[in-house]
Please model this.
Amino acid sequence: MHLVGYHNTDKMGFSFLESPNRFAFLTSKRVDQLVGAIVWAIAGEGKPRVYALGARFVVDEAGAVEGHDINVLRGTSGDVFEPMIPLNDLPWFAAFRRSQSNFSLGLQPIAHEFVVELESLVSELLHGDGLPTADAYVQAFSEIRERLSESQLRMLRAHFESPNHQLTTRQLAAAAGFSTHSPVNSQYGRLGTMLRDATGWHGIGQKSYVLAWFNTPPGGECIWTLHPPVVAALGQLDWIAVSTPQIWPAFRLAEELAAKPLVEGASDTVIVNAYERNAAARVACIGHFGATCAVCTFNFEQLYGPVGAGFIHVHHLVPLSEVGESYVVDPIKHLRPVCPNCHAIIHRKEPPFTLDEVRALIGVTSKTQS
Model:
């Protein structure tokens, strides 16, 4: 979820950049489900109003302010824009302002079309500030190697080995062995500070931006993507690019495998088809529905703890026989998270069982994730 946090400079008596904590907002609204949300801090001042984007941050803490009848959202990871980014003249901003009732409603969700515009604006600004070269990253990583914590090493290795070098905050936490996702921001922040000092690069953005950038799909959780020169550098480091077990391996289903003779000693894990292996679609599906089985409600993290965080199979609802050449998978319409057991039962016949049919087999009431 993406939210607007509005700072009225005239009422507050100081500018947003003078705020004692730029990653905090007070609100009278409920905040119990907002950990992991992205807050976009927009400031307005003067007549006629001049608007600017001051920051964006990930909510790490949400709750009541002790002794006061008000709630607070706080974060430790995000971007502060100095100078702030002017908004008035952007072609989409007038419609955005109207959708927010001129920012008179307090903390307010942002429609997806405007999230796209805001992220595009920030991405263009950040990516326009050239990153170090792969060779510079190799030298920097080698320089800071002895100062890296075991948690940072685990996160880097898992991130490097993951499909498209993308992991959610929860998956990074699991790789490091954390029980919650909050330490991910601080660990990557410290690593980012070391990299900035070692490379001499101090471009705009949060401390960890020198390493990776993040975005949040609609209704999903934060996804971190390593920058290409970082990936190129890590691939040259023998203490990163090692043959460690993959935490989230790719699997295949029998329907996807070509017929071939069995060879003693050979192995092939059989679980999902090509659409289910699509990394971007998989991340978007789990980001939207969560990592709980849509059939039996099993959740690996609840049983196994942090090592199970984010682990789940993804099932493709459309039978492969009905897929044409022009077919484009929609992660929300066409994919569902399912546990390995339910996934195997779904494919016990052709065409596969529907989710409701498998739910009926185990006596689970039908859900909306059909």
